[in-house]
Structures are given as C-alpha cells and as structure tokens.
Design a protein that fits this description.
It contains 4 helices and 2 strands, in the order ααββαα. It is mainly α. Strands 1-2 form a two-stranded antiparallel ribbon. Helix 1 crosses helix 4 and helix 3 crosses helix 4.
C-alpha cells in the first residue's frame, strides 16, 4: 500500500485529514510545526491515535510520518 493510500484510509476511518490530525497533535503537545515535539516518541502519537480514533499501528505510523514531514 502506498503512503498516500494509508493517508486516504486514515481520513476515511477517522473523518479527519492528515493536516487536521497534525493540528490536534500540536494542540495536545505531541507535535509542533516542525515535527514531533521535543521528547515525544512516535509511540505516544500511536497510543493517542489508537485510543481516540481506533487506528492500527500502520495507519498511525503514516500519521507519525506525515507529522515528521513526509508528504508523498
């Protein structure tokens, strides 16, 4: 599955775009505009996405990658 397919599936599952999820992560202190917030590990974002949106590991990792700057 391509990166874009993961991002598309995340939006279908959550009703939120990758940009919206990044904004929520920033509000929660998990990220900032340049990537993950200092001291935050990917596991914290994965745990949040699983708890709040029931995303599995692969889909959550696509959002982590998106937050870190991957766009294609």
């Amino acid at each position: 599955m391509s990166f874009q397919a993961y991002i598309d599936n995340v939006q279908t599952k959550t009703g939120k775009s990758a940009d919206e999820l990044k904004a929520i992560a920033i509000d929660k202190g998990l990220a900032d505009e340049s990537g993950l917030a200092p001291g935050v590990k990917a596991g914290a974002v994965i745990d949040w996405l699983n708890a709040d949106f029931d995303l599995g590991h692969g889909h959550a990792m696509s959002i982590v990658a998106y937050i870190k700057g991957k766009r294609n």
